[in-house]
């Protein structure tokens, strides 16, 4: 399949990109089936940017319809899915009560990712726990970001973090354009899960017990009030707790 796009002088053909790239249309990371220049120029468009639908339904609400735009209102707004700024091509919500902006490629994200041991992560509107990659639940203030979430809700990856992982692995030469980039999540999931569990255990060990905290407060109180006998008793309690 071939198309002509006003953003490039040559015919574009639908083909597998040999490596991850940045789409000229939306300036976001791309890989896999894409529109590439038939003359060999370093020009790529996501399939969704090269031949977009005019209207599309918001994945998490059938009351919200998104309209494709190649600029205008919405530029510099955060993408509802990945949190990154809208720069050129995007979809904008037609609703009057809430404005959503999304990169075309984010709307085409895989709906599920296979993790280790048969665990499946499902695309959700927001993370239910801290991301295994970045360690936060929300991307930043007022931007939650979509996430791949396990059925139990305990394990998550932000959509933006998944793309970052894929890009990092490509730069390190772990896969080519012909391999499935989403396999990188399956390969690193056990390591990320172990790292997160170790952090949780470490924090629990560092957290003072209620008895320990009470002893510390008792030492401070007796020190401030000049109660020598009470200070000795409180100190013994502290060091024995």
UniProtKB/TrEMBL annotation:
InterPro entries: C1-like_sf
Keywords: Membrane, Transmembrane, Transmembrane helix
SUPFAM superfamilies: Cysteine-rich domain (SSF57889)
Transmembrane region(s): 215-239
The protein's name: Uncharacterized protein
Lineage, highest ranks first: Eukaryota, Viridiplantae, Streptophyta, Embryophyta, Tracheophyta
